[in-house]
Amino acid sequence: KMAADTSVDILQKVLENEILQSTKVVEEHLDAEIQKLDQMDEDELERLKQRRLEALRKSQQQKQEWLSKGHGEYREIPSERDFFQEVKESKNVVCHFYRDTTFRCQIMDKHLTVLAKKHIETKFLKLNAEKSPFLCERLRIKVIPTLALIKDGKTQDYVVGFTDLGNTDDFTTETLEWRLGCADVINYSGNLMEPPFQSQKKYGTSFTKLDKKTIRGKIYDSDSDDD
């Protein structure tokens, strides 16, 4: 029993010594950091401060520039002509081609309103598909709602209906944010490898299906069965 007690004592001493050593390392590291700051002369500290202030000023300037170009809010543009001007002056643009009679466009509106405020680096627009036959044909938009995702004036990607959003009307704003992040049209901080789809998917239970409607026989409602 005495031998066992002795080995426990030894272990305890070793453990205490380990803790002391690691505490000492942390303290030495902190001391070194403090000493480094103490040794910085006033000029160096001033330069460090100026660099930080400059970075802050640039970021504020960029934010103001985005706001002046209509970023930060989800806006409707009146015509196809406006679309080209809006797209030309911003690097990242999300444009929702919608129609008043399509229920799913209202769902999309709700999420885009939130994201426009959060992602000020991107311009969020909506355009009535019925008033934009030229654009719909040129961008080959067949289903409403469709989001055109535009970078540097070029349409890079599309979100067509809710297929990429978990195939449900109850998708979260985070799911749409993830999808826009995949297209690199917003600054996305989450993990692109993990789409935040809800575990329970509902298929059309939260709304009444509308009859299929077409625009010039070409554009279909994603509310209909003919997706």
TrEMBL record:
Highest taxon of the lineage = Eukaryota
Alphabetically list the UniProt keywords. Answer: Cytoplasm, Cytoskeleton, Nucleus, Phosphoprotein
Locations listed in the record = Cytoplasm, Cytoskeleton, Microtubule organizing center, Centrosome; Midbody; Nucleus
Which Pfam families does the record match to this protein?
Answer: Thioredoxin
InterPro entries, per the entry: Thioredoxin-like_sf, Thioredoxin_domain
- Please report the stretch or stretches of sequence annotated as the Thioredoxin domain: 80-163
Cellular component annotations (GO), alphabetically ordered: centrosome; cytoplasm; midbody; nucleus
Q: Which Gene3D superfamilies match?
A: Glutaredoxin (3.40.30.10)
Entry keyword annotation includes Endoplasmic reticulum: no
Assembly and oligomerization = Forms ternary complexes with the chaperonin TCP1 complex, spanning the cylindrical chaperonin cavity and contacting at least 2 subunits.
- Which PANTHER family has this protein been placed in? THIOREDOXIN DOMAIN-CONTAINING PROTEIN 9
Q: What does this protein do?
A: Significantly diminishes the chaperonin TCP1 complex ATPase activity, thus negatively impacts protein folding, including that of actin or tubulin.
Name recorded for this polypeptide: Thioredoxin domain-containing protein 9
The taxonomy runs: Eukaryota, Metazoa, Chordata, Craniata, Vertebrata
Q: Gene encoding it?
A: Txndc9
